[in-house]
Amino acid sequence: MARCTVERLMRHLGLQGARRGKALRTTAPGRSVPCPLDRVNRQFVADRPDQLWVSDFTYVSTWQGWLYVAFIVDVFARRIVGWRVSRTMTTDFVLDALEQALYARQPDKAEDLIHHSDRDSHHLKH
What we know:
This protein has 126 residues and is of the alpha+beta class.
């Protein structure tokens, strides 16, 4: 039987294949925590360098276990300006990526720099 046929039939029956490995839960959204003000209104555009930085983190499965990668992107330059890798998902490794970006770019203090991250990033363990 063709793979696509099996996929279609399983989808129709609401079945899923077994997944190997341990399930990974990255964040636990807290509804009681107020959501920070969204200063960019989902408009990710910048007129100059170091005007708007966005950050996020992701996870990667390796033979040694999960690794977490945090990164800061300058929206104007469309390039990563700071990043960190960690074996644990803690707030510190995300802040280290931000500190690396600040040290590397040294944005002008007279100009406003907005750092935007998604809501789940502040639900990391301390």
